[in-house]
Amino acid sequence: MNVSDSIVIIPTYNEKENIEKIIRAVFGLEKCFHILVIDDGSPDGTAAIVKRLMAEEFADRLFLLERSGKQGLGTAYITGFKWALEHTYDYIFEMDADFSHDPNDLPRLYAACKDEGYDLAIGSRYISGVNVVNWPIGRVLMSYFASKYVRFVTGFKVHDTTAGFKCYKRHVLETIELDKIRFKGYGFQIEMKYTAYKIGFKIKEVPVIFVNRREGVSKMSGGIFGEAFFGVMRLRWDGWTRKYPALPEL
């Protein structure tokens, strides 16, 4: 039996070209990770591929939650976080299905939390320059300056505030009031990091190279960035007025 202290949560919508490859890449690592796929009713059969792999090869380390229709990235991760906490994992990861996040970086994020004592490790595109491959220049600039904007408005010192490649220690997600997280798109990524920062958790940015997807279709839209852009003002207001949970004593 493949026992692990770590679960990688992968939200999917129409990722049939990538899902089996990313699952095999994660399971090919020396460290044992488990995977939870959260599929939002993909009409292309993504969930069917995961079910086949569960039945034929990976029953003890691959799991699937199916939801009806697209409900947003943030709600997918909240669902996954709650599942992971119920199943007693100590390290909970976020990762995309399309290989924009390199599975080989998972052990580096794990080491930042497990060995170096950080509470949240972020796979950062911008901690050591701009490490993005095959993105249109307009999208690179939008993402880069969005993070600059968040830093300016909130005073939050993380360089890659919209990053979606992360490792949380269990107690971070137990402390954050998950049902109070409001954003559903990429604003969710900002809100989760900012909330962890305001509570007082130790955060490390681990430099990674982000590679634009080679197969499948991007789910990014202007509305997603709009939510993140305008929601930052609300986060700044929360930072002044909201009472955040206390840092747990470990």
Question: Which key terms come to mind for this protein?
Answer:
250 residues; alpha/beta; seven-stranded mixed β-sheet; 8 helices; 9 strands; globular
What do you see in this structure?
The protein is α/β, with parallel strands linked by helices. It contains 8 helices and 9 strands. The chain has a 7-stranded mixed beta sheet with strand order 3-2-1-4-7-5-8, sandwiched between helices. Strands 6-9 form a two-stranded parallel ribbon. α1 links the parallel β1 and β2. α7 packs parallel to α8. It starts with 5 loop residues before the first strand and ends in a 9-residue tail after the last helix. The mean pLDDT is 88.
Based on CA atoms alone, the radius of gyration comes out at 17 Å
Q: How many distinct helices?
A: 8
Q: Quote the distance from N terminus to C terminus.
A: 30 Å
**How much helical structure, as a percent, in the residues?**
40-55%
Average pLDDT number = 88
Beta-strand proportion: 15-25%
The best one-word shape is globular
Tally of DSSP β-strands = 9
Main beta-sheet annotation: 7 strands, mixed
**Major sheet: arrangement of strands:** 3-2-1-4-7-5-8
The helix/strand order is EHEHEHEHEEHEHHEEH
Structural class: alpha/beta
- Ranges with pLDDT <50 over ≥5 residues? none
Would you spell out the secondary-structure blueprint of this structure?
Elements: E1 6-12, H1 19-27, E2 34-39, H2 46-56, E3 62-66, H3 73-86, E4 91-94, H4 106-114, E5 120-124, E6 132-133, H5 137-154, E7 166-169, H6 170-175, H7 187-199, E8 203-207, E9 210-211, H8 222-241
Helix pairs in contact: 5-8, 7-8
